[in-house]
Predict the 3D structure of the following.
Amino acid sequence: MGAIEAPSGDELLKVLAALGNPHRMRIVAALAGGRNYVSGLAREIGMSRPLLHMHLQRLETAGLVVGTLELSDSGKAMKFFEVAPFGYALTPQAVAEAARTLTDQAPDGKSAGAPGRNAQHGKTQHGKASDEKEETQ
Amino acid sequence: MGAIEAPSGDELLKVLAALGNPHRMRIVAALAGGRNYVSGLAREIGMSRPLLHMHLQRLETAGLVVGTLELSDSGKAMKFFEVAPFGYALTPQAVAEAARTLTDQAPDGKSAGAPGRNAQHGKTQHGKASDEKEETQ
DNA sequence: GCCACGTGTCAGATTCTTCTTACACACCCG
DNA sequence: CGGGTGTGTAAGAAGAATCTGACACGTGGC
């Protein structure tokens, strides 16, 4: 019966909390139309840079966008962001399944090992299977 | 082929914000295992009734659960809750599409009539789909 | 050197959400 | 009639999220 791989409760929770915000939704929408760098994006959607920075950080932590620092021909460092090819199915069973592996995140939980920051876990029919290595950041 | 009906931005936003909470996720999970009434559910998941009441209200507003007030044989009024057969696909395009119809409106109530709130977009494996009626607030 | 552009981060105020406590009512049973 | 069950709601504290402003740094061009 379980056709698709269920995401961990913490992961799904982070994704939903990240997407459950009008500004962040708009950011993802703007990024879905094409990649952009922080200041340009801030101008496009009319938001202060520090605020956009926070939202982008939240989205990146949830694995919904990825940022790459590039150097323009002028030599200026510009951080480009683009949407990650995520795909989640939101159904009662999926939520129930995820809630099973839901760890009541303690205020201090990350001691040794990966901080649980994982992006792709092919949930839906997204054949996109770029391998994912766990990098201990 | 974009034959699928996209949810309104406000609707998707409400759903994501409602599900982006560990307690509410657990509530949906508990309710997916079977219907229950408020006090019983509060005992089952170990939560105070007023708090559970608030969370249930939030979930019901988002259209994720439905509550029906029934009378037990003893004559006691008991409010039973059960999960609504919702189904949302969370992809970059879906978010972008929803963000297009995102009204950043004030806490003031909506003007009139039932807005086009559509829940089922059967792209995931979920057979049964009885449509629910729209209840404003 | 100074300014325009890019980056990141911090402190503080504000606003929202969450949670507890306490109250209101209705019904049944001893 | 008091005590058990069920319901709903309101006030206020506690906490987390949001947002603004100012600061830091680096590079290219006048």
User: Anything to note?
Assistant: Chain B has a mean pLDDT of 80. Residues 9-100 of chain B form a domain with the Arc Repressor Mutant, subunit A fold (CATH 1.10.10.10). DSSP finds five helices and four strands in chain B.
